[in-house]
Design a protein that fits this description.
With 103 residues, this protein is mostly helical. Helix 1 packs antiparallel against helix 2 and helix 4 runs antiparallel to helix 5. The longest helix has 17 residues. It is flat.
Length: 103
């Protein structure tokens, strides 16, 4: 078991701390070659719901996880969600759209 996953097990039910750990865990899973696991953890954090700045980061990592799995239809759907979310800054949807151009 990885250290960030173990930290999630040990943390109390503080939503804010748990969200921050999940936001750190998703890219760690991607970088370690586990995009399916990263994809599974992002919605867990997004369901909380996180503060807008953290939501933007999580949505970008979710787009990345879907993208590396060549799930382009899902990437487009997630970009649409990001673009339609009123709490996100404009750079988040723009960054998500740029992921589409990369793949």
């Amino acid at each position: 078991m990885d250290l960030p996953e173990r930290a999630l097990e040990l943390v109390d039910d503080s939503v804010e701390l748990r969200l921050r750990l999940l936001a750190d865990l998703v890219p760690t899973l991607l970088w370690s070659g586990r995009p399916q696991d990263g994809e599974a953890r992002a919605p867990e954090a997004l369901a909380a719901p996180p503060p807008p700045e953290l939501e933007g980061t999580l949505r970008l990592w979710l787009v990345e996880a879907l993208s590396v799995q060549a799930r382009h239809a899902d990437v487009i759907e997630e970009v649409r969600r990001a673009m339609g979310h009123p709490g996100l800054t404009t750079h988040v949807p723009a960054a998500a759209i740029s992921k589409l151009a990369d793949h």
